[in-house]
Amino acid sequence: MLQILGKASSINVRKVVWTCAELQIPFERQDWGSGFRSTDTPEFTALNPNALVPVIDDEGFVVWESNTIIRYLANRENAIHLYPAEAKARAWVDQWMDWQASDFNKSWGYAFMSLVRKKATHQDPEALEQGCREWTRHMAILDRQLDKTGAYVSGSEFSLADIPIGLSVNRWFETPLTHPDFPAVSAYYERLSERTGFRLHGRNGTP
Where does CATH 1.20.1050.10 sit in the chain? Predict the structure, then answer.
C-alpha cells in the first residue's frame, strides 16, 4: 500500500491525500514533522535530503516534492481527466501548478507566518503590510484567471492544478486579514467544496 510520510495539517501533505481521494488510491499515512516524529534524522533524510514532508513510498519507489508526487500519482493511474496527455492542455495545468509552488506560495509566506503561526520572527508591521499586499495582488491574478475560465484554474474542467491552488485559496480564507471581494475566487471556493476530497482535506478549518 502507498505510504505517505507527513502530518495531516501540512498543506503539502494535504495535496497528496486529496489527490489520493480524487483517484481512489488507498494509503497509509505516518505522522512526521513538527510536533511528531522529527524529519531531521538519518532515517528520514535518507528518504528526502531536504528533511521536509511529504514523502511517499510506493512499494519501494520513494518520491518527495508535493507537486511531483501528485503528478506521479496521476500518471500512475493514467488519470488524463486530471492531468491531460495532450501537450498544450498539460502545459496549462503545469504552469498553474508551478505558479502556485513559486510565486503564489512566496506571496503569502510572511503574512501566514505572522497571523496564523504567530512567529516572533514575522512581526514587523511594515513587512506584514507588504506581505498582505503581495498576497492580495496574487489573489487578484487568480481571480482574473477564474473569471476568464468561468470554472477552474486551467480551464472548464477540474484538473490537478486545482489541488495546490485550492489549498492555497483555503489558506487565504482561513487567515485573519482583510479579504477584498474577489467574486470569481469565492465562486471557485464553493465549487471546490462540492468535492469530497476538498471538504475532507481542504475546506476543513485547517489553513
Answer: 87-201
Q: What is the C-alpha to C-alpha distance for residues 112 and 17, in angstroms, rounded to an integer?
A: 22
Assigned CATH for 87-201: 1.20.1050.10
DSSP 36: S
18 closest CA partner among 174, 172, 158:
158
The per-residue pLDDT string of the chain (207 residues; one tens digit each, 9 = 90 and over) reads 999 999 999 999 999 999 999 999 999 999 999 999 999 999 999 999 999 999 999 999 999 999 999 999 999 999 999 999 999 999 999 999 999 999 999 999 999 999 999 999 999 999 999 999 999 999 999 999 999 999 999 999 999 999 999 999 999 999 999 999 999 999 999 999 999 999 999 999 889
Q: 3.40.50.1820, 1.10.1060.10, 3.40.30.10, 3.40.50.620: which CATH number matches 2-76?
A: 3.40.30.10
Q: In the structure grid, which three cell numbers stand for residue 21, read together?
A: 481521494
DSSP class per residue in 130-143: HHHHHHHHHHHHHH
DSSP 8-class letter at 63: E
DSSP state of 58: E
